[in-house]
Design goal:
alpha+beta, elongated
Length: 166
């Protein structure tokens, strides 16, 4: 007698193996999705840093606000961007430029903030990635950046964000 097909035991073994693979792969997949969503923060902040450095090198007086340096970052489906010290909202950046503060004196401090619109793994909705920009007049007009994600849970998603600080 010729035997065709699979036995019930063979099918059960395949189902168990697929279940184990799914149990391991699904959490990894969600981790990668959150990391990919957060990956836009680094390049957006890096562009801001380059424009700010160019502005200070050209003007030599102080750091500039978003409009002065030509930084245009529209809100995305993952983040709101603004030039406040924390907690951006939809109304903070409606036309591509955030609300401008007083920039008359040489001690002006400029801010760059990205606020998440969704939960990204253990990083809560509304978490901020902050970049504070100040000019150090005592060292020949060097710009100083202080980069801080809101919590360690958010730091895991963008481990190189704090390297923007110098």
């Amino acid at each position: 007698m010729k035997k065709q097909g699979f036995t019930l035991i063979e099918l059960m073994v395949v189902i168990v193996i697929m279940g184990i693979l799914a149990a391991v792969a699904v959490p990894k997949l969600f981790g990668m999705i959150a990391k990919s969503k957060a990956s836009e923060v680094g390049p957006a902040a890096g562009e801001y840093v380059k424009l700010q450095d160019a502005f200070v090198a050209e003007k030599g007086v102080r750091v500039g606000n978003w409009k002065e340096i030509g930084y245009l970052m529209k809100n995305t489906s993952n983040f709101y961007y603004c030039d406040k010290a924390s907690a951006c909202g939809a109304s903070d950046n409606t036309d591509g430029y955030a609300a401008q503060g007083s920039v008359a004196d040489e001690n002006y401090v400029a801010y760059w903030t990205a606020t998440s619109l969704a939960v990204l793994n253990d990083c809560a909705k509304g978490s901020d990635w902050n970049l504070t920009t100040a000019q150090n007049s005592t060292s020949g007009g060097t710009v100083t950046y202080t980069a801080t994600p809101t919590s360690g849970d958010c730091y895991v998603l963008t481990p190189s964000f704090d390297k923007l600080a110098r």
